[in-house]
Write a structure and sequence with these properties.
The protein is mainly alpha-helical and 1233 residues long. The protein has 40 helices and 9 strands. It catalyses: ATP + H2O + xenobioticSide 1 = ADP + phosphate + xenobioticSide 2.
Length: 1233
């Protein structure tokens, strides 16, 4: 705390010294000026100048040399008194003589900054003093475990009003790049748990009030019920801002009317100026807090819905999980909940737009009377045109969202089964599937973007049409003269009217995007193993506290001790998402150890020995099922009948029914299907190998060795977290930390966006159209200002030429939007194509080390930003920038003094923007890395929800999810608060320019400036703040959105696997002719820093033989298969098939010649036909023969749609049938291997 205080004090003194030296220079210059004018005998002025010069000269070195508290107090008092007393004299002179020196104007600004420094300096001294007193009671050792919370609740009124509570975080962001550890936590009222609990209570209350089966509109009703009070507050702020916007044209009318009168009335002018100041301040503050509070409340809604979806996922039935795929659930959380969070802001924007239109029309009638009546016709027409436009946009948005949902679902399914796709060489097929979904999505995206272009034209042409009709109405009805006050009041009012006309279609578009979709303990071991991202220990403990003896017994009972000893970091070795760097047997035994350690009452074991060899299966059955679980109730589902003689009771199932029940001996004596199954198993054992002649009571040698192996001494390799932390994680770290840029990357991402899309020519066209639009718009208003006071120009000519020039400007704005939309569409196509190609060409190592959620985040939210947000953000930023320059130029042409203030205000705005951007950039980047863990957690939970429920770990997973949601929400909250911090300061600085322009217009003599130019200057001045804020907001949005370009581009440049086809080295069509495989000194490692898995294997698989590869689980059997398919490339050595080195040919040419039945087969969403024959290579007869071989023909024949039946809705989609389907698919290919 002390170091922060000293650094802040040093910063204040540094600025104070700089400003003091500056004023010293001007004081000496003023004293010299008196001498030069021989005005030295004017004692009062001479003494004042001399005294000021001496004080400033002495103060600067005093601050530099002696930085004590009293020097700072004295300097602060001097600054405050100097500003207060001297400026009173200066203002009095200005009002009396209506003239001042340019030096005094500069000094006013500088000394005003010193006044701010004085207050900050005094406040800092008081705070430092209190802090020092408080530090006396602080402990000597600071407890770091204390949770840092956002300072909003502790902030004072002014701090909340000006968002100054964001200062410490922004200051930290300027001193160093922010990291996740620097981010404070949300205040309790913003946390996801509280938001969800309130939502759930409201939801339950609504369901009790009506039929529980009818949940239509319950989500919306619950949201309204919970956040009604917040909505009323936000509505009041929005209404206040709307009233201020509509009042501004009336103030302009009063200004121009005052300047048009012959007699001078300074008091009236200053009164109007005071009204202007109050109006703009209220408008600024109310709008900032409306935006901030709406998004804060929206964040709570979003968090509540994300948690509600997750909680519902944990409770979904088996049928419900089939209806809602993992990809769809991820989409609800990643996209739909975010849209609902934005709904609140758009809702208030919609009704405020209607109110603003009504009030603007009332102002028109107040100013010009019945002349406004003809203007109602085009206003009504333009409003009605929005209805079909909104419907067209609604259709486009709806179709786009449906296509996007389908693409995300398919992408999620493909990523979760990418290994099987690569093994079968189906990449091209599934890549085309994603591209077909994207083509449909892109079609509706293009429709929506081009519809928005027409909306932009409607927005800009509407004021021209309406103003021209109103002008002609005034001429024909004679209700008001077309003088400067009338003309520019009408234009300012219509400008305030055009904003809601533009916002209503956008608001409707955003609202359309909102989709309302919306006791003994048990242990469970599924047939398909489910492993979480994390360490081996975390997967076994599964949230329970560590008990070493119990933990080691579980490991030994599940035959994991040797595996753990072989890992680089023992049980702290990271095993990645879904356990992808483990063999199937290791995964199964880890989840079996998880169940044993859970120490439950009932154990449900769903074929737990399916992925292990017979030897390991015997160990697991004897040591785990029969020994470790001897006092438990165990339900064992298995097809391995050799273990059934040891169980107490057997249930035989067939066709979904229990056909037999009894002990092993009873079922054998019954002479039914069970006896046939046992005899078939014995026959297969007899056929495959010689019988064992040892006596039944004599243990075999192998059993004795195994028994010694288990019951002898052992040491499990444990690594403490401290050891791992000290050594680093070169070998243990499989899942890589998500990359993010650090610091200011400048314009690189922006140029990446342009060059990847090859849109430089379109960008140049956009800029040219922007200059044309601003130029013609300025020309139209200048024409009105100059021509309205020329007697020879008729009213008809005045309005006609204005209409023609304004129409030309609307054409330019249409072309600007048209070229901008096409630039965005080209970028969308380029980025998706590059991203999609890179993902499907990535090696398996990439998927082993990258969580699915991380890829899905880029495929969903990041790509959505590239599709929708970046194109218009870029165009709007450039448009506002060029319009701002034009506005300043027009204002300066009337009151040149504005240039001086605008330079200072722009410098201040730029400084504030740079200061903000340093922290905000990192906040957005960190937020990009907090989204993926949320979607990844949802995806992982969806895959393992049965295991989670069985282990009664729902609460633990739920609370972990709450933490992830809060972390993501914190970054969102701080990003929004930071931009409001920036905008409110920029508005204050730009309002200073507006007030300066208005002030000098009051002081200027009536003969010096025409009323038309007064109206022109003020009409542009009133739009100045809105323009600069619009530019700043869209520039900051663009800077934030462009992070998505960085993130997608990272994945566009990931390493790719070898080519699918090498044209110059394709194998003969008949290859392989024999089927001989030779392994020559084959060495394999998964990563450069990983240990070698296959260590110099040399062997030959002769043609036409059946080769059994046996070994302990984790010995490298699966790695050998992966090497044959080149899922992992040899480190050294060769694999030769029929004399051809497989590394010399393309991957597709290799994999299409091999068939595999994977350890974990899966069925893709679709029909039975598309699962067996994705490439469409085989006839129906061939498919039916394959099904018959695999004993699936009867099952498929019983389905209503036969081969076209869906695997997600029919009984074909169960795990056992998935294995049989994989066998059927393999038999279809009829390959040599």
């Amino acid at each position: 705390m002390a170091s922060m205080d000293s650094s802040l004090g040093a910063l204040l003194i540094h600025h104070s010294i700089s400003i003091s030296l500056f004023v010293s220079f001007f004081s000496v210059a003023g004293f010299g000026n008196l001498i030069a004018k021989s005005d030295i005998y004017c004692y009062p002025r001479w003494l004042v100048k001399l005294f000021r010069a001496l004080v400033w000269i002495s103060l600067s070195p005093s601050l530099l040399l002696q930085r004590s508290k009293w020097i700072r107090v004295m300097s602060s008092v001097w600054w405050a008194s100097n500003f207060s007393l001297i400026k009173v004299v200066n203002v009095e002179k200005l009002l009396r003589t209506r003239s001042t020196e340019i030096v005094n104007i500069v000094l006013w600004i500088v000394e005003f900054l010193l006044l701010i420094c004085a207050f900050k300096n005094l406040a800092h001294i008081m705070v430092s003093h209190n802090s020092q007193d408080d530090n006396l009671t602080d402990p000597l050792v600071v407890q770091n475990s204390e949770k840092r919370v956002i300072e909003l609740d502790r902030a004072g009124f002014l701090s909340k009003l000006m968002f100054s509570w964001m200062g410490p975080l922004l200051r930290l962001g300027n001193s160093k790049p922010l990291s996740l550890e620097d981010i404070p936590s949300l205040v309790s009222e913003d946390e996801a748990n509280l938001a969800y609990q309130k939502f759930k209570q409201a939801w339950d209350s609504l369901l009790r009030e009506k039929d529980p089966r009818n949940t239509k509109n319950s989500v919306l009703g619950a949201i309204v019920k919970v956040y009604m009070k917040e909505n009323i507050t936000i509505g009041i702020l929005a209404l206040l801002r709307t009233i201020c916007v509509v009042v501004s044209p009336l103030i302009l009318y009063a200004f121009v009317h005052c300047s048009n009168r012959d007699e001078e009335n300074l008091q009236e002018g200053l009164s109007i100026l005071g009204c202007l100041i109050v109006t703009k301040l209220v408008e600024s503050l109310s709008q900032r807090h409306w935006f901030f509070d709406a998004r804060r409340c929206g964040m709570r809604i979003r968090s509540a819905l994300m948690v509600a979806v997750y909680e519902k996922q944990l409770k979904l039935s088996s049928l419900g999980r089939r209806r809602h795929s993992t990809g769809e659930i991820v989409n609800y959380v990643a996209i739909d909940a975010y849209r609902m969070g934005e709904c609140l802001w758009w809702f208030h924007t919609t009704w405020c737009s209607g109110v603003q239109i009504f009030l603007a029309i009332a102002v028109l009638f107040k100013v010009i009377g019945s002349g406004a009546l003809p203007g109602l016709v085009p206003i009504l027409i333009c409003g009605l045109l929005n209805v079909p436009f909104a419907k067209l946009l609604q259709k486009c948005q709806f179709e786009f969202m449906m296509a996007q949902d389908e693409r995300i679902r398919a992408t999620s399914e493909i990523l979760n089964n990418i290994k099987i796709i690569k093994l079968q060489s189906w990449e091209e097929k599934f890549k085309n599937l994603i591209e077909s979904h994207r083509d449909r999505e892109f079609k509706w995206l293009a429709e929506a973007q081009l519809k928005k272009v027409y909306g932009t034209l409607l927005y800009w042409i509407s004021p021209t049409i309406v103003s021209s009709v109103v002008f002609f109405g005034c001429i024909l009805l004679g209700s008001a003269p077309l003088n400067a006050s009338t003309i520019f009041t009408i234009l300012a009012t219509l400008r305030s009217l055009s904003e809601p006309v533009r916002m209503i279609p956008e608001a409707l578009s955003a609202m359309i995007q909102v989709k309302v979709s919306v006791y003994g303990s048990i242990a469970y071991v599924s047939q398909t193993s489910w492993i979480q991202s994390g360490t081996v220990r975390e997967n076994i403990l599964f949230g329970k506290p560590m008990e070493k003896d119990k933990y080691e017994k579980a490991i030994v009972a599940c035959a994991l001790d040797k595996d753990i000893n072989s890992f680089d970091h023992g049980d702290l070795t990271e095993i990645g998402q879904r356990g992808i760097n483990l063999s199937g047997g290791q995964k199964q035994r880890i989840q079996l150890a998880r169940a044993v350690y859970n120490d439950a009452d009932i154990y449900l074991l769903d074929d737990p020995f399916s992925a292990v060899d017979a030897h390991t299966a015997a160990i697991l059955f004897n040591e785990c099922v029969m020994a470790a679980l001897r006092d438990k109730t165990v339900i064992l589902v298995t097809h391995q009948v050799e273990f059934l003689s040891e169980v107490d009771k057997i249930l035989v199932m067939q066709g979904g029914k229990i056909t037999q029940s009894g002990s092993y001996e009873e079922l054998l004596e019954a002479g039914t299907a069970f006896e046939q199954l046992v005899n078939a198993h014995k026959d297969s054992i007899t056929t495959l190998g010689p019988s064992n002649d040892d006596g039944p009571g004599e243990p075999r040698k192998e059993d004795i060795v195994q028994s010694e192996e288990i019951h002898g001494s052992y040491t499990i390799k444990h690594s403490s977290e401290g050891e791992i932390s000290a050594k680093g994680l070169p070998a243990v770290q499989l899942t890589q930390e998500e990359e993010k840029e650090i610091g200011n990357v400048g314009w690189k991402p922006f140029w990446d966006y342009i060059f990847v899309s090859k849109g430089l020519f379109l960008l140049v066209l956009v800029v040219i159209m922007l200059f044309g639009f601003v130029g013609f718009q300025a020309a139209a208003t200048y024409w009105l200002a100059l021509a309205s006071d020329v007697p020879n120009i008729t009213s008809g000519m005045l309005v006609g030429i204005y209409t023609a020039i304004s129409t030309l400007s609307a054409v330019f704005v249409y072309l600007r939007s048209f070229f901008g939309a096409h630039l965005g569409l080209r970028a969308s196509k380029s980025f998706f194509s590059g991203f999609n190609n890179a993902i499907f060409k990535a090696p398996m190592l990439f998927f082993d080390s990258t969580p699915v959620g991380r890829i899905l985040t880029r495929a969903s939210s990041d790509l959505s930003i590239v599709d929708y947000d970046i194109p218009f953000s870029m165009v709007y930023t450039m448009a506002a920038g060029i319009e701002f320059v034009g506005t300043i130029a027009i204002m300066a042409s009337v009151t040149w003094q504005v240039l001086i203030v605008s330079i200072f205000s722009m410098a201040g705005s730029k400084y504030a923007q740079v200061y903000y951007q340093a922290a905000a950039r990192e906040l957005i980047r960190i937020n990009g890395t907090t989204k993926a863990p949320v979607t990844n957690h949802v995806s992982e939970t969806s895959l393992g929800v049965v295991t989670i429920r069985a282990f009664r770990s729902v609460d633990r997973f739920f609370h972990n999810y709450l933490k992830l949601v809060d972390k993501d929400a914190t970054l969102f909250f701080l990003s929004n608060a930071a931009i409001e911090w920036l905008v409110i300061r920029i508005e204050a600085l730009q309002n200073l320019t507006l007030f300066t322009a208005a002030f000098f217009l009051v002081l200027l003599p009536k003969s010096q400036v025409a009323p038309g130019l007064v109206g022109l200057s003020l009409s542009y001045a009133l739009s100045l703040t809105g323009t600069i804020v619009f530019m700043t907001r869209w520039y900051c949005n663009l800077a934030n959105y462009i992070v998505s370009v960085e993130r997608i581009k990272q994945f566009m440049h990931i390493p790719i696997e070898p080519p699918a086809i090498i044209e110059g080295n394709r194998p003969p069509p008949s290859w392989p002719t024999k089927g001989r495989i030779e392994l020559l000194s084959l060495r394999i490692k998964y990563r450069p820093n990983a240990p070698t898995v296959l260590k110099g294997i040399t062997c030959t698989f002769r043609e036409g033989t059946r080769v059994g590869v046996v070994g302990r689980t984790g010995s490298g059997k699966t790695t050998l298969i992966s090497a044959l398919f080149r899922l992992v490339e040899p480190t050294s050595g060769k694999i030769v098939i029929d004399g051809l080195d497989i590394c010399s040919i393309g991957l597709k040419d290799l994999r299409m010649k091999l068939s595999i039945i994977p350890q974990e087969p899966t069925l893709f969403r679709g029909s039975i036909r598309t699962n067996l024959d994705p490439l469409g290579l085989y006839s129906d007869d061939e498919i039916w023969r394959a099904l018959e071989k695999c004993q699936l023909k009867a099952t498929v024949d019983s389905l209503p749609n036969l081969l076209d039946s869906s695997v997600t809705t029919e009984k074909i989609g169960v795990p056992g049938n998935a294995s049989s389907s994989a066998l059927a698919e393999s038999s279809l290919r009829e390959t040599k291997f």
